[in-house]
Amino acid sequence: MKDKLWNGRFSERTDHGVERFTSSIRIDRRLYPYDIQGSIAHCRTLEKAGVISSQEADLLVEGLGRIKRDLDHGEFEFDDSLEDIHMHIEARLLQDIGKTAQKLHTARSRNDQVALDARLFLRDATGQVLKGLCRLRQVVVEFASNHLDTVMPGYTHTQRAQPVLLAHHMMAYYEMFTRDSRRFADSLKRTNVMPLGTAALAGTTYPIDRRYTARLLDFPEVAANSMDAVSDRDFIIEFVSAASICMMHFSRLAEEFILWSTAEFGFIELPDSFATGSSIMPQKKNPDVCELIRGKTGVVYGHLMALLTMMKSLPLSYNRDMQEDKKPLFETVDILLDCIHLFARMLPRITVNKQAMRKAASEGFLNATDMADYLVGRGVPFRQAHACVGKAVSYALSKNKELNQLTLDELQQFESDICEDIFDYLTLEKMIQRRLSEGGTSPDNVKRAIDEAKKALEQEKERGQGA
User: Fold this and answer.
1) In 10 A of CB 21, how many CB atoms?
2) Distance separating alpha carbons of residues 84 and 15, to the nearest angstrom
3) Distance of alpha carbon 128 from alpha carbon 108, whole angstroms
4) Domain boundary, last residue among 359, 378, 398
5) pLDDT exceeding 70 applies to what percent of the chain?
6) More exposed terminus of the chain, fewer Cβ within 10 Å: N or C?
7) Domain tally for the chain?
8) pTM, whole model, 2 decimals?
9) Nearest to 365, CA basis, from 160, 150, 155
């Protein structure tokens, strides 16, 4: 029982199977920089309160610094019997500096300690996500800027619908990732709350200054309720929820790239360095990166459901179930950051087949709505114009022609008000130029959206939020 820091109550050694089952060190060892950071701040808070002397605080801080250096260099031994990173560090500190280490845990519990570590970790991770998304959005805007003259079919129901600019299509993803950034920035406000000093659940009897600790750790506020502080995992669930939405956006874009890179579409070619080959078919170039992003989206969704399910019936305050929050959190952060960085590197290297996109936009009656609009401009009610064009489409299909390939006489059999100017009206350029409503695909609108995006990203960088 010598190796347990809580062994005073117990008369039997912990079963080895229980030690393995309850140990979290293989996962939460990742929190060690934050655990040490929090412990150093706690030492200084105890010193300020007169609970320990300045000499004891200095000894503890120096010892913690040495332990961190060992952990940084991989020179630290882990043991399931010590359960978690908190007990590992405390046990090692006791070994290194002696009985003074036993004062470290005064006025705190592992309950508020792990809540602090998770918040410090997630604060850093959210900052990385925000910088990564800023860089990704810059790449999307640059890609869009390079394709202001690239016309492609826009789709609804996976069917060709109306022509749009590729730049407009990609700026839709800029909007999605911008909303993601705002969600993460907003969730950071609720992550950035300091729980340390609430102890196990009821607070502590020692005269510590929690706001002093918060200043040392750069927290703008402290948790207001001690029971909530040790049992709250909303901030993790909120982050994973925002990550799930962001991964949904990645998955949608990945799916489009997968489709566009097929021989059937032929719209783009993915860079060789972001694709893989087949073990049996020498000709294959597989979009495995995009496929894995699509697949890992489901993993992140699963982590969100696991966290919600874990927390749904827990009575106040801390319960050991909450130990299971680390793996979903860590893996979600890792997957999300990987996807952000991979897309930011892959997108500029994608080759766009402008001719294939334009050809696809020129076929399949994508000018049907514009023909109806033309008739409306001639005084025909829209519903009547819609029916008229539908009949014209049916006729063109029977002749294996596009609407703009029919003769004027053929078109006039459906509506006598149609004139020669309809053929100029139905060109791709004119159709796109007429989409002038705010948010539409007209070149002027898209250029304006790109310029505004560039300004917004520059402001983010000036505020220190960008890459």
Assistant:
1) 9
2) 16
3) 29
4) 359
5) 97
6) N
7) 3
8) 0.93
9) 160
CA-closest candidate to residue 415, choices 364, 379, 369: 379
| CA distance linking residue 266 with residue 113, whole number of Å | 54
Is residue 440 one of the residues assigned to a domain?
A: no
Give yes or no for residue 3 having a pLDDT over 60: no
Nearest to 67 by CA among 84, 89, 52: 89
Catalytic residues, by residue number, are 157, 278
What angle in degrees, to the nearest 10, is found between the helix axes of 110-145 and 32-48?
A: 130
CA distance 155 to 172: 13
According to DSSP, the β-strands at 159-165 and 151-156 are antiparallel
Per residue, what are the HEC states of 285-346?
Answer: CECHHHHHHHHHHHHHHHHHHHHHHHHCCCCCCCCHHHHHHHHHHHHHHHHHHHHHHHHHHH
Q: In the structure encoding, which two tokens stand for residue 267, read together?
A: 């719209």
Q: Amino acid letter at 66?
A: R
Expressed as residue numbers, the domain containing 250 is 111-199+225-359
Number of Cβ atoms within 10 Å of the Cβ of 217: 21
* In contact, 167 and 450? CB cutoff 8 Å: yes
Percentage of the chain surpassing pLDDT 90? 90
What pLDDT is recorded for position 1?
38
Residue with tokens 């990704």: 136
SS3 content of the chain, % helix, strand, coil (to 5): 65, 5, 30
What does the pLDDT look like over 238-292, one tens digit per residue?
Answer: 999 999 999 999 999 999 999 999 999 999 999 999 999 989 999 999 999 999 9
**Could you identify the residue written with the tokens 């100029």?**
424
| Gyration radius (Cα) of the chain, Å | 30
- 272 shares a domain with 151: yes
Confidence of residue 402 (pLDDT cuts 50, 70, 90): very high
Distance CA 230, CA 18 (A): 24
Asked if 243 and 152 sit in the same domain, the reply is: yes
Token readout for 100 is 């003074």
CATH for 46: 1.10.275.10
Are 174 and 144 contacting, i.e. CB atoms less than 8 angstroms apart? yes
Cα 298 to Cα 133, 295, 301, 327, distances in angstroms:
20, 6, 5, 15
